[in-house]
Write a structure and sequence with these properties.
Shape: elongated
Oligomer: single chain
Order of helices and strands: HH
Structural class: mainly alpha
Number of strands: 0
Distance between the termini: 17 Å
Helix content: over 70%
Number of helices: 2
């Protein structure tokens, strides 16, 4: 049985792949933080005015923003792990 030498060629992108991924992760983190701020403010205002339906939706938006920020932050570690794993295969 013969081994096949097929590997991804990251140099084909000219080194721009890391900058593109970095920019996308930055945008995701900025939007997630803005979503957290807006949802927290909406939750506080709607709770104080007795609008519990809007407060419930704002609370959901807050948790979605926290999850998005956590996933975007952990994506860097996951990507580094996969790149290092690919070098050892």
């Amino acid at each position: 049985m013969r081994e096949v030498d097929v590997y991804p060629d990251f140099s084909a992108v000219g080194g721009d792949l890391e900058r593109i991924l970095g920019a996308l992760l930055t945008i995701v983190l900025v939007v997630a933080v803005l979503m957290i701020l807006i949802s927290a403010i909406t939750w506080a205002v709607s709770s104080s005015h007795g609008n519990f339906s809007a407060a419930s939706k704002a609370k959901t938006g807050l948790w979605v923003g926290v999850a998005a920020a956590a996933l975007a932050g952990s994506a860097v570690a996951w990507l580094n792990f996969l790149i290092n794993l690919g070098g050892h295969l």
